[in-house]
């Protein structure tokens, strides 16, 4: 089970942006090419099929969380050392206020 | 965009929007085309009969108008010659053509009469060269009275309705029509 739970399934923020941008570019490009091709052979169904091919390609490239969308992970701050006894007493009312 | 479903949903929505845009482009590319085309129509044999139209006068019968309508409804049989080339009308925004031949005439009781005599559906890819000789009218040419006997000016026109993938459903008239007159006497032969 450790093997499966260790498979990374996330994209980082930059990766999400890139995947969306890439999918829109692919679909738009296939749409434009399909329109020109369909007009050239005078068959609108060809346009729809080319757009469908673009959708499939974009699905394969941008829906699964490929490793290329995980190249810029966020640099989280280091976890702080656990607070001492005195500090815990002073901080506890603040956390209650937040709630 | 953080999950597979989110990305798939956004992509499907965007694809459908693009498809709508492409369909609109397809409509725009054909909306200004001129679909009129010449057609020649002729009539060869024109007769007029006087027979009761039971289908139309049942109701009138009940109302007591039967003497006029039962006895003097008119039927006509024309033999049409029709020739036109429609192949160039088909483009990527035309799925089928619905052709119909209309007779238009004026009678004392009605200023404007229109009767559809014949029609035909042509799908894209089928033979669109219409060259028909000696076909009979597909539908009865009833007048709701006795306005056809001896009528001097009945005009036949060919029109078509364009069924597109997207956009308007225009009715286009062919260039050219045919006018004929009915004989002044009823025929006695069976036609």
Relevant terms:
heterodimer, A: 99 residues, mainly alpha, 0% strand, elongated, B: 191 residues, alpha+beta, 4-stranded antiparallel sheet, 3-stranded antiparallel sheet, 3 helices, 7 strands, 23% helix
Structure summary:
The complex is a heterodimer of chains A (99) and B (191). Chain A is an all-alpha fold and 99 residues long.
Strand coverage percent of chain B: 35-45%
Question: Ranges of chain A with pLDDT <50 over ≥5 residues?
Answer: 90-99
- Major pleated sheet of chain A: none
Query: What series of H and E elements makes up the topology of chain B?
Result: HEHHEEEEEE
**Class per helix and strand makeup of chain B:** alpha+beta
Average pLDDT of chain B works out at 77
Q: Helical residue percent of chain A?
A: 55-70%
Strand segment tally of chain A: 0
**What is the number of E strands of chain B?**
7
Number of helices of chain A: 4
Largest interface: A-B, 29 and 22 residues
Give the biggest beta sheet of chain B: 4 strands, antiparallel
The unreliable regions of chain B are 59-80
Helix share, percent of chain B = 10-25%
Structure description:
The complex is a heterodimer of chains A (99) and B (191). In chain A, 67% of the residues lie in helices and 0% in strands. By secondary structure, chain A is mostly helical. In chain A, helix 2 (13-41) packs antiparallel against helix 3. The model of chain A is unreliable at 90-99 (pLDDT under 50). Chain B has 191 residues and is of the alpha+beta class. Chain B has helices at 4-30, 54-63, 66-72, and strands at residues 39-50, 74-85, 96-105, 113-123, 129-136, 154-163, 171-180. A four-stranded antiparallel sheet of chain B has the order 4-3-6-7, with no helix packed on it. A three-stranded antiparallel sheet of chain B has the order 1-2-5, with no helix packed on it. The model of chain B is unreliable at 59-80 (pLDDT under 50). Chains A and B meet through helix 2 and helix 3 of A and helix 1 of B.
């Amino acid at each position: 089970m450790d093997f499966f739970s260790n498979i990374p399934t996330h994209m980082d923020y930059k990766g999400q942006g890139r995947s969306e941008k890439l999918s829109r570019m692919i679909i738009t490009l296939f749409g434009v090419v399909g329109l020109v091709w369909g007009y050239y052979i005078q068959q609108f169904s060809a346009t729809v099929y080319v757009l469908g091919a673009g959708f499939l390609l974009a699905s394969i490239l941008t829906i699964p969380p490929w490793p290329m969308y995980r190249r810029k992970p966020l640099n989280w701050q280091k976890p702080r050392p656990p607070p001492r006894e005195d500090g815990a007493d002073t901080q506890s009312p603040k956390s209650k206020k937040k709630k | 965009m953080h999950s597979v479903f989110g990305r798939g949903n956004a992509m499907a929505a965007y694809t459908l929007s693009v498809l709508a845009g492409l369909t609109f482009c397809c409509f725009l590319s054909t909306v200004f085309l001129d679909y009129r085309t010449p057609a020649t129509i002729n009539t060869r044999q024109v007769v007029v009969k006087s027979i009761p139209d039971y289908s139309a006068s049942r109701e009138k019968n009940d109302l007591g108008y039967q003497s006029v309508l039962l006895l003097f409804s008119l039927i006509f049989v024309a033999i049409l010659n029709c020739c036109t080339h429609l192949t160039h009308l088909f483009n990527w925004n035309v799925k089928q053509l619905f052709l119909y031949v209309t007779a238009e005439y004026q009678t004392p009781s009605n200023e404007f009469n229109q009767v559809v005599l014949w029609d035909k559906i042509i799908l894209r890819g089928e033979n669109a060269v219409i060259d028909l000789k000696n076909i009979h009218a597909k539908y009865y040419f009833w007048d709701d009275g006795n306005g056809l006997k001896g009528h001097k000016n009945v005009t036949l026109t060919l029109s078509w309705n364009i069924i597109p993938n997207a956009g308007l459903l225009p009715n286009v008239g062919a260039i050219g029509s045919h006018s004929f007159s009915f004989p002044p006497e009823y025929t006695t032969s069976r036609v």
